[in-house]
Amino acid sequence: MTAPVIGVLALQGDVREHLAALTAAGADARPVRRPAELDDVDGLVIPGGESTTISKLADIFELRDPIDKRIADGMPVYGSCAGMIMLATEVLDGRPDQRGFSGIEMTVRRNAFGRQVDSFEAPVTIAGVPGGSFHAVFIRAPWVERVGAGVEVIGTVTGGPAADRIVAVRQGNLVATSFHPELTGDLRVHAYFVDLVRATPGRRHLRA
Ligand code: GLN
């Protein structure tokens, strides 16, 4: 079976780690920096990093409209941390000039867990990801404050001071997590996304 071709938006952030995790999870993973490279992938990961920078670079590299168009056409996208912010229709505590892709109908709060706890780890259960709770790493992470009717909450923090916060969501083929599964060696979130891409009809690389 042909491996699904999955791009990692390579403007800024932890691109290499996602490429490695996707490859280990069975994808043909490639960096995406140009519209022509985007044309060639069946799914896209937006990595963690800095959403204000990714927003700016998406315009400079002329990727904003092509990504919005692929999202409208049903391409699966997974955003982690800054990537979650880039997939939110509304951002609190963002910069006035930052702009996301036409993504998940939700409100996220940027840097929500507070500067005192810039980074922390907590268990998260994720619906659709078997094998028990996920050890999640949060780095200046957003949380989700509101979801629209079409959005499924698939993950909440299960313990500690941030218990019950929404940190993973899905709307159709769009998936977002506040945390960084690419840093822990647990491939289950990437495997979930690779399966989603594999199951999406109209994959470019299945067409002759
Ligand atoms: N705080 C960052 C932002 O606003 C996200 C942090 C991360 O991706 N680790 O984009």
TrEMBL record:
The species is: Micromonospora tarensis
Q: Please name the catalytic residues of this protein.
A: 81 (nucleophile), 180 (charge relay system), 182 (charge relay system)
> Could you tell me what this protein does?
Catalyzes the hydrolysis of glutamine to glutamate and ammonia as part of the biosynthesis of pyridoxal 5'-phosphate. The resulting ammonia molecule is channeled to the active site of PdxS.
Q: How does it assemble?
A: In the presence of PdxS, forms a dodecamer of heterodimers. Only shows activity in the heterodimer.
Cite the annotated pathway.
Cofactor biosynthesis; pyridoxal 5'-phosphate biosynthesis
Q: Name one Pfam family in it.
A: SNO
Which PANTHER family does the annotation name?
PYRIDOXAL 5'-PHOSPHATE SYNTHASE SUBUNIT SNO (PTHR31559), PYRIDOXAL 5'-PHOSPHATE SYNTHASE SUBUNIT SNO1-RELATED (PTHR31559:SF0)
> What name does UniProt use for this protein?
Pyridoxal 5'-phosphate synthase subunit PdxT
* Reactions catalysed: L-glutamine + H2O = L-glutamate + NH4(+); aldehydo-D-ribose 5-phosphate + D-glyceraldehyde 3-phosphate + L-glutamine = pyridoxal 5'-phosphate + L-glutamate + phosphate + 3 H2O + H(+)
Q: What Enzyme Commission number(s) apply to this enzyme?
A: 4.3.3.6, 3.5.1.2
Database matches in Gene3D superfamilies: 3.40.50.880
Task: Specify which residues bind L-glutamine according to the UniProt entry for this protein.
Answer: 49-51, 110, 139-140
| Sequence similarity | Belongs to the glutaminase PdxT/SNO family.
This protein's UniProt keywords: Glutamine amidotransferase, Hydrolase, Lyase, Pyridoxal phosphate
Say which domain of life the source belongs to. Answer: Bacteria
Keyword check for Oxidoreductase: no
**Stored InterPro entries:** Class_I_gatase-like, PdxT/SNO, PdxT/SNO_CS
